[in-house]
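4.2 Preliminary Data

To establish feasibility before requesting continued support, the project team ran the inverse folding procedure on a target of 496 residues. The structure was first converted into the token representation described in Section 3, and no sequence information of any kind was made available to the design step. The complete token record follows.
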């Protein structure tokens, strides 16, 4: 227990927080029906969690270095458990979204402290073994999320995808307090509260504007106001980071083209790979008549291919140039998205299979290399910051792209259906609309909207891939980023 108990506790929390990124995907139609939720509500059920995780990840790590990593980790698990309970008992979409945001706050505290805790407990070969186990658990969480969500939704109901977190959290807290030693970072560090606040306002304002654009239009007063607030917050963030002694992001790193290329790749990665899946799940369940379990199984080729390729690439990463693995991975995400964008009224779930496999292969190429590429582009003393920024942008990109795809989907569907009907259909309200529209019209409209969303995803992946190939020039990890730090940050990249 003394030897591997800490790893067990850390892996339990990691599994929970990463599982909850994807587990809700196949439950969205049932949530919409049970809570009378709209499309924008469903978007926030997905985005609220990812957005809170992204906005507070860097700040939570800095706070943990000061007040204690185990203390922050345990507090995060407690918040996550309470939020999961609130999600499960939610009586309406507003309560569910608020609870999901609270879940994201707890997840940020958990995620920011997992690798530092592993690094403080294990050294040498044991650390390598611990990181390998941690990386495998991270991959399994992403892989089983949709399937486990389908099983729970089809069985006891969608609320149990949240209730199951509670007993696991209790075990995690008990085990963490019993076997995980406390650790802290360098003395004299201070929390960049202003940076945390301005970045959170920027991320939240931008995502809100994207979601609102789908419901009220790009030029509505509320949408433009949200974009303006996000822009002002971004300017404030830059000004703050230039002046504070211990910034969340050292802006001087942005003068390095290779690091900028990695950040562009990170921002596109999760959004392109996973952002459309929520809408594909709604399409399969509400229009194709698939149950949640079958919907989860239909999506399984993506994470399965990703795990197989990631294990192979991870073992050979020291021989491969990050420029090419990242660039090829993003281009495969693009090709896989484009390959799915040929749906029509008669299409079924097999039409997605080839594209899902290609996206999975691209994900497998990116996962083991993206953080290592960030480390190679910055000084060794900034490696922790670089890894944190990469994971923050991955979650932020996911939240933003889910909102963008929803807006693109409903806009395209609006060419065939009235705007209100398009919004209802995208939110899983096909049963009601069948009274007013023929089945083939509904199927054609949704297929057309999905095609546009997939083309948008493919275009983003294509642009990001070309940027990475143009900017990420250093094919090898610098000697200064070797040792125990590089594997730790590299392992973190396997987490969705």
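Position-by-position output of the design step:
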């Amino acid at each position: 227990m003394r030897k591997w108990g800490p790893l067990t506790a850390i892996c339990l929390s990691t599994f929970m927080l990463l599982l909850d990124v994807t587990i809700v995907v196949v439950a969205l139609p049932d949530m919409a029906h049970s809570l009378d939720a709209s499309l924008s509500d469903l978007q926030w059920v997905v985005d609220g969690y990812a957005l809170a995780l992204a906005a507070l990840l860097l700040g939570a790590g800095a706070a943990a270095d000061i007040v204690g990593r185990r203390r922050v980790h345990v507090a995060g698990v407690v918040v996550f458990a309470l939020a999961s309970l609130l999600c499960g008992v939610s009586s309406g979409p507003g309560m569910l979204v608020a609870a999901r945001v609270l879940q994201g706050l707890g997840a940020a505290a958990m995620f920011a402290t997992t690798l530092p805790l592993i690094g403080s407990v294990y050294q040498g070969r044991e650390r390598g073994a611990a990181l390998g186990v941690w990386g495998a658990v991270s991959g399994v969480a992403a892989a089983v999320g949709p399937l486990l969500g389908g099983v729970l939704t089809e069985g006891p109901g969608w609320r149990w995808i949240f209730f199951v977190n509670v007993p696991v959290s209790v075990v995690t807290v008990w085990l963490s307090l019993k076997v995980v030693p406390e650790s802290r970072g360098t003395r004299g560090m201070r929390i960049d509260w202003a940076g945390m606040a301005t970045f959170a306002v920027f991320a939240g304002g931008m995502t809100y504007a994207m979601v609102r654009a789908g419901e009220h239009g790009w030029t509505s007063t509320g949408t433009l106001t949200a974009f303006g607030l996000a822009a002002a917050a971004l300017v404030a963030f830059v000004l703050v980071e230039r002046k504070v002694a211990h910034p969340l992001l050292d802006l001087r790193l942005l003068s390095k083209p290779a690091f900028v290329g990695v950040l562009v790749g990170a921002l596109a990665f999760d959004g392109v790979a996973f952002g459309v899946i929520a809408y594909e799940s709604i399409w399969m369940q509400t229009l194709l008549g698939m149950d949640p379990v079958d919907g989860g199984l239909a999506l399984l080729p993506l994470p399965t291919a990703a795990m197989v390729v990631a294990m192979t690439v991870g073992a050979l990463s020291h021989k491969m140039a990050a420029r090419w693995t990242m660039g090829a991975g993003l281009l495969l995400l693009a090709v896989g998205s484009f390959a799915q964008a040929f749906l029509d009224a008669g299409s079924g779930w097999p039409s997605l299979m080839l594209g899902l496999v290609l996206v999975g292969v691209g994900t497998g190429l990116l996962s083991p290399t993206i953080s290592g590429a960030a480390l190679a582009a910055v000084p060794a003393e900034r490696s922790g910051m670089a890894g944190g920024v990469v994971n923050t942008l991955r979650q932020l990109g996911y939240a933003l792209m889910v909102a963008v795809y929803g807006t693109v989907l409903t806009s395209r569907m609006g060419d065939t259906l009235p705007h209100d009907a398009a919004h209802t259909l995208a939110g899983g309200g096909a049963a009601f609309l069948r009274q007013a529209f023929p089945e083939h019209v509904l199927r054609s409209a949704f297929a057309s909207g999905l095609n546009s969303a997939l083309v948008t995803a493919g275009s983003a992946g294509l642009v990001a891939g070309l940027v990475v190939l143009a900017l990420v020039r250093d094919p090898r990890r610098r000697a200064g980023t070797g040792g125990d730090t590089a594997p730790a940050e590299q392992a973190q990249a396997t987490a969705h």
